[in-house]
Amino acid sequence: MANNYAVSITAENRTGLIRDLGSVCAELNADINHLETSTIENTARIDIEIEYDGAVENLVEKIRKIPGVTSSLIHETSREIFGKRVIVIGGGAQVAQVAMGAVNEADRHNIRGERISVDTIPLVGEVNLARAVEAVARLPRASILVLAGSIMGGEITQSIKKIQTAGIPVICLKMAGSASDAADLVITDPIQAGVMAVMHVSSVGVFDIERVKGKEF
Amino acid sequence: MANNYAVSITAENRTGLIRDLGSVCAELNADINHLETSTIENTARIDIEIEYDGAVENLVEKIRKIPGVTSSLIHETSREIFGKRVIVIGGGAQVAQVAMGAVNEADRHNIRGERISVDTIPLVGEVNLARAVEAVARLPRASILVLAGSIMGGEITQSIKKIQTAGIPVICLKMAGSASDAADLVITDPIQAGVMAVMHVSSVGVFDIERVKGKEF
What we know:
homodimer, alpha/beta, five-stranded parallel β-sheet, 8 helices, 37% helix
C-alpha cells in the first residue's frame, strides 16, 4: 500500500528541474500527484505530493542530489491539512449562505478529527459559471459542488453533466432554469444545502447523496 | 513576455510520464507552474499549467507525441477562472461570518471582471491551526489569510511570521493571544475583516494593507 508524502524543495532556478525530478520519481516508482512551482529571482520552490511505497527518506535523499537542489523538507500533505473540498459557486448572497451552512457543519466534523474545507467563488454570467463548474473537475480534492443561484441553465447544465461524469456530485438550490434538473439533489434552503454537502463528503456521516438522488427538499 | 496556458492531458498510465512531460517542456523552455494527476484504472489524467513564450500549439503537438498520450486540450488557467484566493481559517462561527463579508465583497469585484475566490476551513487546536496557517504558503494563488477566532497564539504566531515572510499578509480578528500582535492588521468585526481582505487583493481597489499596517479597527 503506497503512502502519500509532501515534500518542499528549493533549488537554483534552471531548465530541466521538473524533468530531473520526474526522472528520480520514475526510477523509484514514486507517483507525483501534485506539483506546484514558484520562482523568486533565481530560486525555484517546488512543492510536490507523491505516492510511494518505499522509505520516503531514500526518495528525499535522491531528490537532494539533483543538481541545483539546495533543500528539501517533508511535511503533511494538503489532504491531511485541508482535506476534502466542498465547492460553492453562484451569486454572492446565496454563496455566502451556503458557505455559512457548510462551514458550520464542517466545524462539527473537523472537531472530531476529519478535514473538510469550504471553498467558494461568487460569479455572474452563463459562460463564466459554466467554465468555473467545468473547472471543478480539475481542482485538487474537490469532492462536491453546490450551485447557489436563482437562475442557471444552458452551458452551465452541460458543465454539470461533465463533472458528474468525472465523479463529482452536484447539489443545486431550487431555482429557475435547467441546471436543477441535472443536479443530483435540489435543496431550497441554502444553509441546509451547505450542511448536506458537508454531510455527504464526510467519512463518518451516514448521509449519502446516492440514497436521495433526484429528490428535492 | 511569457503567457500562461492550461492543458489537460489523458494518457495510458505508465511510469515516466511526468519525466517525459518535463523533458518536452524543458526542451521548449516552457515552465511548468502547476501539475495535478489522477488515475482511473489504467488511464492517467494530467492537468498542467505552463508559462511559455512560444506558440502553445507547438508545445501541445509535442506533448501529443509522448508515448501513451491519447488526448490534450488547452483551456483557461485556474488563475483566470478562480483568481486570487482569500483564505479564512479559524473557529466555525467566525469563519462563516468572515466568509460572508468576503464572498459579498468578492461578488462586487467579480461582477466587474475580477476573479477573487474565498476559501475556508474551520479548525480547532493550536497545532492543527499552526500547520494549516503554515501550509497557506503552499496553496496555489493564496493571496491573503484571515484568522478568525477568539484565542490564537504560540505556534500559530510562529506560522503567521513564516507566511508573512513568504509574502502573504495576515488579518486577525481582535482576539486573545499573541497572534494578533503578529498580524498586519487587526479587525474587530468579522464581516469587515472579510471585506477588507478582498479589497486588499483586488487589483482595482484603492485599499492597501501596507498603508494601514499594524492598525486596529
